[in-house]
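I can't quite decide. Please look over this sequence plus structure tokens:

:::
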Amino acid sequence: MIAAMMTAANLGARVTGWGFVVFTVGSICWSIIGLSSGQNNLLASNAFLTVVNLVGIWRWLGRQRVYEAGAETAKAASRRSSSPDLFTATGIAGMTVVDRTGETVGKAVEALVECRSGNVSYVVVATGGVGGAGEELRAVRRDAVRFECDTLHLAFDQAELCALAPLDGGDWPGDPDHAHGARA
């Protein structure tokens, strides 16, 4: 159960990777029980799970950790250089969103990027709810968002954000002109 919470929480490569370590210990223990008690089905299923969990360890404590470390190194180096500050595109999800008065109004859950230009078209902002339950999602056009290193600033206040129509589940706009919050 602990391993499942660690991997499901998606708190970064390190936590997810250690979740797979806990899963591996469990599958090895169940394999030993299956072997010692003659339960071949238990042994076979947990031997397979051990292989799957080892792939998870390699993926999350190996490759993904390297990716995240590289991104963090570039982000930190940009803060010390004369070039513009950088942040990872994957880092947009989870960033705090504040309105024009500086009040925290939610968090970014995703940014949609235009294929041809590579520019952010709109950002999906989550408001309300607890742990994702009861939250509402709204699409905010790029021209209504100012990006900073750890925060997204809206060009309008919380009341205007809440006045935007919530997105209907997974039905997000495919055309940036149908996202909300554009400033003329």
